[in-house]
Amino acid sequence: MKKIAVLTSGGDSPGMNAAVRAVVRKAIYHDVEVYGIFQGYYGLVHNNIRKLELGDVGDKIQRGGTFLQSARCPEFKEPEVRQKGIENLKALGIEGLVVIGGDGSYRGAQRLNEEGIKTIGIPGTIDNDINGTDFTIGFDTALNTIIESIDKIRDTASSHERTFIIEVMGRDAGDLALWSGLAGGAETVLIPEVKKDIKEIADKIQQGIERGKKHSIIVVAEGVMSGHECGEELKKYINVDTRISVLGHMQRGGSPTGLDRVLASRLGGFAVELLMKDETGLAVGIQKNELTKTTFDDIFVGEHQIDRKMYELSDELSI
Ligand code: F6P
Fold first, then answer.
1. What domains are defined for the chain?
2. Would the CB of 102 count as within 6 Å of ligand 1?
3. DSSP character string of 37-83
4. DSSP state, residue 11
5. What is the pLDDT confidence band of residue 19, given thresholds at 50, 70 and 90?
6. Is the dihedral of CA 49, 271, 262, 134 positive or negative?
7. Residue 319 confidence (pLDDT)
8. Does residue 11's CB lie within 6 angstroms of at least one atom of ligand 1?
9. For 27-41, what is the mean pLDDT?
């Protein structure tokens, strides 16, 4: 394989730049030309493609976001739209494609693979909701951003004896809420994977107050309900001074952590290795610290699971 391309797609995540850098440098090291597709699948269809050199990825490893930019492109589901993208690749003699993104991006990659473009997926999303990998690129950075926010909110919660509800991202997955709740010492974590009764939460807060607790932190995953809805629900059972913090897109930004940079570099390098061996239709990942590959078909089997043991522990530690 002499020419490959790389794109980032869907919601950006910290570490995507480090992954692109790894793809570009590994390929050039092995005398493979690399093209950058700007604005994800939209850029593929609209031919926003140019050759990348070593210098294009210099000074990028520490940057958040994605310099290739990203875009949502729902029309990429249409076969005739994808065909335009395929023709653009073929016109440049590009034989292989690396897609860095989440679930939706993988669906596009799977289709392209079926339609004859050798494609490898790299999991890039803060949500950590992709099968076939223990961690996605960006999760650790977002987790640390949330923890920092929880720590700061805790100061005010304590000064004013308040209950804070902190809404975090994650789409339909609870990993960000669970991990940040555990690391931030939250009293309660609400995640889509486990049903929890709001009355039980109110009772727990009440018992805490009776034991002398001065404040409470509730972390709610956006996939369960909004922070404001959670506040309204809670009000039905308990009368405490409550504030809501919706962390929003600040969770997606910032310089990637060391873990995310290393993960991105390893996965980027591995993706190129696979393409050089003409392997295709695979998503790379990390499981028990080993690099792994999983077919797109297998990635889409079953729902992403949270670590139940960790959930139980977070409950046990938040009494
Ligand atoms: O998938 C990443 C994510 O940040 C989710 O956590 C969130 O639900 C969604 O993207 C927000 O998407 P957008 O930036 O398009 O509003």
1. 3-138+256-301 (3.40.50.450), 140-252 (3.40.50.460)
2. yes
3. ETTHHHHHHTT-EEEE-GGGGTT-TT--S-TT-----GGGGSHHHHH
4. S
5. very high
6. positive
7. 81
8. yes
9. 98
For residue 248, what pLDDT is reported?
98
Alpha-carbon gap, residue 77 to 63, rounded angstroms: 31
Q: Whose CA is nearest to atom 9 of ligand 1?
A: 171
**How confident is residue 72, by pLDDT bands cut at 50, 70 and 90?**
confident
Confidence of residue 215 (pLDDT cuts 50, 70, 90): very high
For residue 11, the CA-to-ligand 1 centroid distance in Å is 6
Phi and psi at residue 15, to the nearest 5°: 115, -15
Can you tell me whether residue 219 is helix, strand or coil?
strand
Closest residue by Cα to atom 11, ligand 1, is: 11
Q: Whose CA is nearest to atom 15 of ligand 1?
A: 11
List 12, 103, 127, 140, catalytic entry: 127
The pLDDT > 70 percentage for the chain reads 100
Average pLDDT value for residue range 110-122: 98
Residue 127 is a catalytic residue = yes
Contact call for residues 215 and 154 (beta carbons, < 8 A): yes
* C-beta 169 within 6 A of ligand 1: yes
Nearest to 253 by CA among 22, 6, 9, 17: 17
* Ligand 1 neighbourhood includes 170 CB (under 6 angstroms): yes
Task: Please give the distance, rounded to the nearest whole angstrom, from the Cα atom of residue 61 to the centre of ligand 1.
Answer: 22
Ligand 1 atom nearest residue 10's Cα: 1
Is the per-residue pLDDT at 142 higher than 90?
A: yes
- H runs (alpha helix) in the chain: 16-29, 40-45, 79-91, 103-114, 139-160, 175-183, 198-210, 227-235, 258-276, 296-299, 308-317
Question: Residue range 221-242: average pLDDT?
Answer: 97
Q: Is the CB of 96 under 6 A from ligand 1?
A: no
